[in-house]
Write a structure and sequence with these properties.
This protein has ten helices and five strands; from the N terminus they run H-H-H-H-E-H-H-H-E-E-E-H-H-E-H. It is mainly α. Strand 3 and strand 4 form a beta hairpin. Helix 5 packs antiparallel against helix 9.
Length: about 300
């Protein structure tokens, strides 16, 4: 009898041990789920705030879903827009371009390709001064870029002042150090290895000047807030034209998009809150010892398909 009770007690202890182990495992699982959901919720809120500050400041169509439109009566929103802007005299004017002979077209296309094919991202700069009037013309060329509804959502801020450039470099390097050490994944760092970049950005202070390109999701006209449509794409196209313009006059740059640096740089330069930093472009002449990675561009059949 005693032996039977002892056996039952041993079995009971084994069962209790398993129950405790399973309970502890379940508790750990619940804690991890709680922490994960809490983190995901915070990330979601952060992303929502970012969207509210950027693209989502105003919906694409403010009145969509609020007004039932009778299509037989025409486009309500477009007709209302025309009525509201009639006083602005939105007229069209004649337009034409020179029409070249095919051989001349081929020559001009080839010459332009050979010019822009010499463009390279350069990180080594001479301190020689860049004429301001040359930069002005290059930025005017960038300003010819198309933009959504002709809202021109860009602002080019040229910084010559050495102290400001040193302060901007400090902001960028502080954030880039964190990027390289913690935020960038293994694959990203492997792709950057061939370019041999680090968090140190000497070119911000070594180049004669930098151009900070800000994008604006909206603007104010007569005190009324208006959306800037497709502002991301519009600013990117403008920067592409700027790169060609700089290359055309023998200047070099590197397209830098400093992560998490925008707000601090914006405050340093006293820019309005609705402007978001899109690009940082050091501009100048290449140094006498400048080098660039030995990279090769894809041929036409790898980047183009004719249908």
């Amino acid at each position: 009898m005693t032996g039977g009770i002892e056996t039952l007690l041993k079995e009971y202890k084994v069962y209790v041990k398993y129950v405790i182990l399973f309970g502890a495992a379940y508790l750990v699982k619940c804690v991890f789920e709680f922490l994960y959901n809490r983190s995901a919720g915070q990330n979601s809120q952060t992303q929502q705030v970012k969207e509210n500050n950027d693209e989502a400041d105003s919906p694409l169509f403010e009145d969509s879903g609020k007004t039932v439109v009778d299509e037989s009566q025409g486009n309500y929103f477009y007709d209302k827009y025309l009525a509201d802007t009639e006083s602005e005299k939105n007229v069209h004017i004649p337009f034409s371009l020179p029409r070249f002979e095919p051989e001349e077209m081929k020559k001009r296309a080839r010459d332009f390709y050979e010019l822009v094919n010499k463009r390279r991202s350069c990180r080594f700069f001479s301190p020689d001064p860049v004429p301001r009037d040359v930069l002005e013309q290059c930025i005017l060329a960038a300003g010819t870029s198309p933009s959504g509804a002709h809202t021109e959502p860009w602002q080019f801020v040229v910084v010559y002042n050495k102290e400001d450039r040193l302060a901007i470099r400090e902001i960028v390097e502080d954030e880039e150090k964190v990027n390289y050490e913690r935020r960038m994944g293994k694959n990203w760092l492997q792709d950057l290895a061939k370019i041999k970049t680090t968090f140190v950005k000497e070119y911000i202070s070594e180049a004669d000047c930098i151009i900070l390109v800000f994008k604006s999701p909206f603007h104010y006209k007569n005190g009324v807030k208006h959306n800037n449509w497709y502002y991301e794409a519009s600013v990117s196209i403008a920067v592409g034209i700027l790169l060609c313009a700089l290359n055309n006059v023998g200047l070099v740059t590197v397209t830098s998009t400093p992560m998490n640096c925008g707000p601090a740089i914006r405050r340093l330069l006293g820019r309005p809150d609705h402007e978001k930093l899109a690009f940082l472009l050091p501009v100048g002449y290449p140094s006498s010892s400048a080098t660039v990675p030995d990279l090769h561009r894809k041929p036409l059949d790898k980047i183009c398909t004719f249908v």
